[in-house]
Amino acid sequence: MDDIRFSKPGEQGKINSLAADILKNVRINTGFLLWMGFLGTLLVVCLYAYTIQLREGLGVTGLRDVTSWGMYIANFVFFVATSLCGMLISSVLGLIGYKWVKPISRIAEIIAIAFAAVAGLVIISDMGRPDRLPYVFLFGRVQSPILWDVTVVTTYFVLSLLLWFFPMIPDLAIAKDKLEGRPKFLVKAYEILSFRWMHHETQYRIMGQAVRILLILIIPTAFAIHTVTSWLFAVTPRVGWDSTIFGPYFISGAFVSGAAAVIIAMYFFRVNYRLDKYLNAEVFERMGRVMVLVAIVYLYFNLNEFLVPAYKLKTGDAIHLRELFTGHYAMLFWGIQLFGLVIPIVLLLFRQMRRPLPMMVISVFVLCASWLKRYIIVVPPQAHPNLPVQHVPIEWVVYKPTLIEIAVTVASIVLVLIIITVLSKLFPVVPIWEMAEEHEGEEKIIQ
Amino acid sequence: MSKEKQEEGNRSNDLDRAIETSRRDFIRKVTLAGAVTVTGGAAIYSGHRFEKAKHREGFVKVLTEDNRLVEIPVEQMRDFKPDLKMLQSRGREGIAGRRWVMVIDLSKCRNARKCVEACQSAHHLRPYEYHINTLVMQESVNTPAFFMPKPCQHCDNPPCVSVCPVDATFKRQDGIVLIDNERCIGCRFCIAACPYSARIFHWQEPSLNEADKDKEYDVELNVPQKKGTVTKCLFSADRLREGMLPYCVSACPNGVFYFGDENEDAVTNGTTKETVRLSELLEKNAGYRLMPELGTKPRVYYLPPKNRIFEFEEGEKREYKEEKA
Lengths: 447, 325
What we know:
- The complex is a heterodimer.
- Chain A has a single domain (9-429), classed as Formate dehydrogenase/DMSO reductase domain (Formate dehydrogenase/DMSO reductase fold), CATH 1.20.1630.
- Chain A is 71% helix and 0% strand.
- Chain A has helices spanning 9-23, 30-56, 71-83, 85-96, 102-125, 135-138, 145-165, 169-175, 184-193, 201-234, 246-272, 281-312, 315-325, 330-348, 356-378, 380-383, 403-426, 432-440.
- The longest helix of chain A is centred in the middle third of the chain and has 34 residues, at 201-234.
- Chain A is globular, with a radius of gyration of 23 Å.
- Chain B folds into 2 domains: 1-78; 84-303, Alpha-Beta Plaits (2-Layer Sandwich).
- Chain B has a 5-stranded mixed β-sheet. In chain B, strands 1-2 form a two-stranded antiparallel sheet.
- In chain B, a hairpin with an 8-residue loop joins strand 4 and strand 5 (146-150).
- The longest helix of chain B is centred in the N-terminal third of the chain and has 53 residues, at 2-54.
- Chain B is extended, with a radius of gyration of 31 Å.
- At the A-B interface, helix 6 and helix 7 of A face strand 4, helix 4, helix 5 and strand 8 of B.
């Protein structure tokens, strides 16, 4: 029996108490139904707005020839950015060997899955002819960054899904006998998805190898998705996008919004799922430090992106930067830099601020600023093309998102929340078996 | 009295001579008419016989594309109308041996906007939807403004074509950059990439689509226009195929546009119909291209706006209102 893990009576007890803690949230209760009902209704209302867009054309948005990419694309960039948190937590921090990321790695993967999946839908909502989506595969041309983006975002989504699922198989096997009172379909799903897992050491070794390969593979893929997304802008000769540091600038920004999203989710699960034993103050403290680090790196790239052209003030750059620094977008620009970056960095340097509640509040600011930052990156550079905008209706000159556009964007955010809710409510959010090993103090790292 | 008689005699002599002349003339004319009738009749008769001998009753001779002379029954004759497949394949191929080029003489433009109107009516666009637009340009506050017609630059290194994910916009062998509205997915990457703002998107149902419903889509004309896709200046590829100058070029009343073939080194002015050497025209007038530093290699050249009007007047201010669905 030596090669069956968790077979000793002591270990069994540990597993049972952990499973009781973590699985108590795996149930369909009124709270869940109400929340899903609310999200569902909101989604239906917002999707109605999309049907109007489908019928009337993209003219129902505020987009016109001058600013032809707006809120949808900004939202897409934000989604891709935030989905990078899966790679940051599980791969970068996990492969280094930090054990404290274990309880939050699954949360990070869930967020990654949700944002990566919906990012693909967001880009479809921006298409003038969504019915021609198959053309991308039928007539795709390799030199277009859109093709690269489609390829890597899909790959990243699949890798994240596997990285969420593989380490969960032992948990499903543990949990399948402990689901009294849950709906039948859920018990059945656990049975099928646990693939008759027997906790055999060989099984653990094979899974460990698979997960390790995935953890390594996902690093270049994650770098690729956001670098390619930045290239959608950087490959065009437009002032404000025509930048050589857009790749790392976007990646470092993605870590900031990703970390913020994870912290908010951690706080939510800690309070609502009463998982404070696992999502404890120490994990928050460490995440706070990670946040400071990635935010400082992002600030550094911001400095490069704005200060260097501002020093030279080439004609086009001058117009663009004046709009950002003192013009139409000044409030937004400085608000984002201050409340989304500088103040959070300063605050999180203090230990008292790295406690769960203050960190959650700070992260909400950071996440909102991250969304608005994508808007600032996408929209203003289009407002001042090289040649003057003349002889067009006034609506064409200044971009203003319409209600329909906002509704469709809200729909995408609702969809993300639905995916996160379903995945975190129907499956354990904290890995049971990994925590059991952690608690026993056994230094078993996935080989 | 004798003087009177003499005058009378003279008069009758003149009369006789006149009668004699007209008679001769008459005979000559009748003879000639007779001869013409006979020859004409003979010609018509032999022509008729020849025609009768030439083809069988109810058949007509036709030269096929591969140079074969064939006979087909008259009742089976149909007017030729290219179908979508043919329009698409010839539209993507372009016209062999040509390298179309446009020269715009800015010193002549007086903002008549006839080029814009001709273009919009040919391509079924609204008054604020432009394949070509005349812009008011000013390099610095100390120099007077000038008008600049701006079509698509048909770059030899087009950023729009590079970024297109589905090969909807493409560069043809004759130098024209076209967009296929049957292929375009409406991602608008090309609009984002174009440094000349040459491309427009159909944000709503195109204006004449109700009337164009039954028309076969011609990629060289972009008609019928299609909602949710991008459209742009086509250098009037449909007119070039028929050996005519582009719509804007022929419509200009001020001799602004030259259009021609770079391979022949010749361009023709759309107003004066004068044909000149392209290289000479560019060299003598210091021709230039827009934003050469971007490396896009446009096929549209500009001649500098010399002799500017110092009391610059833009003319009547036009208001453009978006049509609501």
